[in-house]
Specification:
globular; 13 strands; 29% strand; single chain; alpha/beta
């Protein structure tokens, strides 16, 4: 594991990763019901995927971990922006992420974070770049998308769900992740594809995470049901 706090050390770390480029430009999560929602049944490589969630204390780290682990199977490192030191490393190890190929970004401000994310996305040796991003304007979103296209890996960005807001699409897919009733042993998420040309936008899938093993699977309760009518859709 490498912890990056400065630009020079990140440049050196990424230069070393270039020798191990990402193989392939798409990936599957291994959860068939989830993959079926994505366009052509595959999460596109060389692209950005956004995870939106309501403004609540919890946000979908487990879903981001699932995508990052699946993307890492194509090869390459995982870069994760963790300025608040909130990432629980044992959880990553428990689901099979190789901590030896993990880059933690500890940026001091928003501008430095966006710079670091673009650098990681452009690096052909980084399979997935993960971050919580409060908001993006059109230029920033486009810059990150182009960086992902150049590097071949994926950007996985967690952003707040803002009903009624609109913004130009710069992500290949955009998912609404909402907490669902769980139990002492299981955490549940409702997953819906909001944007993704050719994907199953009218479907909702209930996923559950085992709190002990951190493994994710479809829930037999309410799984793969039609989406309920919503008062407003998030488009940005």
């Amino acid at each position: 594991m490498q912890i990056m706090t400065g630009k020079d050390e990140l440049r050196r770390a990424l230069a070393a990763k270039q020798a191990s480029p990402v193989h392939g430009r798409g990936f599957r999560t291994g959860i068939d019901a989830l993959d079926a929602l994505a366009p052509t049944g595959v999460f596109q490589g060389g692209a950005v995927h956004e995870l939106l969630w309501p403004r609540r204390p919890t946000f979908p780290k487990s879903f981001a971990l699932l995508l990052a682990k699946a993307a890492q199977n194509n090869g390459g490192a995982i870069a994760w922006s963790d300025p608040e030191r909130e990432l629980h490393l044992p959880a990553l190890s428990a689901i099979g992420i190789n901590l030896g190929h993990l880059i933690l970004l500890r940026c001091s401000g928003r501008a430095d974070q966006l710079w670091a994310l673009a650098e990681c996305l452009r690096c052909s040796g980084v399979g997935a770049t993960v971050a919580f991003i409060q908001s993006l304007n059109q230029i920033e979103a486009r810059r990150l998308q182009l960086a992902a296209e150049r590097g071949g890996g994926v950007g996985i960005f967690m952003r707040p769900y803002i009903p009624g807001a609109s913004a130009p699409y710069a992500a290949a897919t955009r998912w609404l992740i909402q907490p669902a009733p769980g139990s002492e042993d299981v955490q549940r998420w409702s997953v819906e594809l909001l944007h993704g040309h050719g994907g199953q936008i009218d479907r909702v899938l209930l996923l559950e995470v085992d709190r002990e093993t951190h493994t994710m699977r479809p829930s037999t309760s309410l799984a793969d049901r039609p989406a309920a009518p919503a008062t407003a859709r998030a488009t940005g």
